Amino acid sequence: MSNAYKNILVAIDLSEESRKVLLQAKEIAARNQHAKLSVVHTLEPLGFAYGGDIPMDLTSIQDQLDAHARLRLQELLEGIDIPKENQYILVGMPDTETHRLANEKGVDLIVVGSHGRHGFQLLLGSVSSGVLHGAPCDVLAVRVGKKS
After folding, report:
1. Which of 16, 55, 103, 109 has its Cα between 20 and 30 A from that of 147?
2. Phi, psi values for residue 41, rounded to 5°
3. DSSP for 24-71?
4. What does the DSSP 8-state code read for residue 80?
5. Per-residue pLDDT band at 40 (split at 50, 70, 90)
6. Whole-structure pTM value
């Protein structure tokens, strides 16, 4: 039985630091007989932020956020060869959608960013911590941000 990863999912937030997480995942994929590499960014539905009590249709705003996320993802992926069919922009809760996609695609490693603060919850941040708990596979937290 091989310990090599075959299917890696990178969960990013589209910040500048996401590039470091993507490059680290690309390196891991290369070291694992060029494992399949996919990327996911999850947009939280606008209604969640306001408790769903908004007297207006947010569809066009959500569509604009989706278009902006796709554009930003393309910028971050420059020079990183991830086919379009392995690039996902989802709407929902980031940890839940990452777990669902990982299960659906048979992912064996999820890579996320970590800010390296003190304490376990702070170490990962709420989204990364949520991805870790309940993940169907290994999770690697790549340290991003300022070094202590």
Report:
1. 109
2. -130, 135
3. HHHHHHHHTTS-EEEEEEEEPPHHHHTTT--SS--HHHHHHHHHHHHH
4. -
5. very high
6. 0.84
Given pLDDT bands bounded at 50, 70 and 90, which one contains residue 122?
A: very low
Taking 90 as the threshold, does the pLDDT of residue 73 lie above it?
yes
What sign results for the dihedral spanned by CA atoms 114, 118, 121, 125?
A: negative
Return the SS3 of 116.
Answer: coil
- Token pair in block for residue 138: 């290994």
* β-pair partners for 112: 141
Return the exposure string of 38-66: e unless at least 16 CB atoms fall within 10 Å of the residue's CB, then b: bbbbbbeebeeeeeeeeeeeeeeeeeebe
DSSP symbol at 88: E
CA distances (Å), 88 to each of 1, 6, 42, 93, 100, in order? 30, 18, 8, 14, 12
Longest distance between any two alpha carbons in the chain, whole Å: 56
137 contacts 109 by C-beta, under 8 angstroms: yes
pLDDT higher than threshold 90 for residue 106: yes
**Do 45 and 91 touch, CB atoms closer than 8 A?**
yes
